[in-house]
Fold:
Amino acid sequence: MSLLTGIVEPSPLLGFLVKAGDGMDDVLQRIRSDLHPGQLAFVDDQTTSILGVSAGYGAGKTRALCAKAVHLAMANQGFIGVVMEPTGPLIRDIWQSDFDDFLDLYDIPYTFRASPLPEYTLHLPGGDTKILCRSFENWQRIIGINGAWILADEIDTVNPAIANKAFPKILGRLRSGNVRQFAAASTPEGFRWMWQTFASEDGKGREDRRLIRMRTQDNPYLPPDFIERMQANYDPQLLKAYLDGEFVNLTTGQVYDRFDRAKHVAVQTVADRRRLQRGQHVRRDRHPRWQEPLCRGRDQRCPRHRRTGTEDQGALPRSQDLRLPRRQRWQPQHQRNTNRHCHSRKLWHVQPIT
Structure:
């Protein structure tokens, strides 16, 4: 094929770069043969509208996204696709370097433009196909784009407030092409966006969503000592997230590691006219007592901040422990020093819960 073919005939200008006898179907087959089962399940699913991958370190998330981008570009030739990283520098440091190597490895013709915003153009048999590279920190820049597919990398590292606000706007961009799909791949960072979208009760009940798990052990191309080094330096709670791709509590679970949200969290309704008290069990001078939480000016049960008046203020003195010294007992509002803030006063003391 000559260079003039792309000018005088309706075919890609750089279509001559595709090797003879090596069609795109063969390229896709070569890509699929190099994927492990978890990556292959992610790439082959083009029917689920919202697709997610929860994977450990080194499980092959970025390689799966590269393969997914090429497969979706082939299914939507001539339409626009979008790849999103958490920040702008990560587009250059992670996606651009890996995607360049991926395209060169499988001899896929492309051009790259870095300015004003990075984008790839794949020169496919059915027409040039653009892949825009954007960041979640500037997710407003995708407004107005008619995209066929959008891929998100390491979305759990994005601020949950930004991710929750950007997600419905992103779905509104999927309105062109043949296979419209949103797919995200991330290492789980606790109960954040990935868990809320795919693993929560609301996410599991939706038919348009699917979560695929990939373990670090699934990647046969890792160095042999990579997993051993992680097992020697990470505690069991972190290994569940960073090796197995499971959703675990990475904050409070460091102290109460036996806490299980499914076993120890219960939602109960208190019957009408039953007395309910809440607080924490503390020890002072070896005498256990129950203390109400510290008031920060927002608790309406605090007599100082009660909006409904003072008609119920007499209930607190009746319920306090009268064995306390007088200086620690509750006093009506008019007897207190009004210049002191609530958080500087003593905690309220009530009788133990029986």
Remarks:
- Residues 1-22, 293-300, 304-324, 338-354 have pLDDT under 50 and may be disordered.
- Residues 88-105 form the longest helix (18 residues).
- The first strand starts at residue 50 and ends at 55.
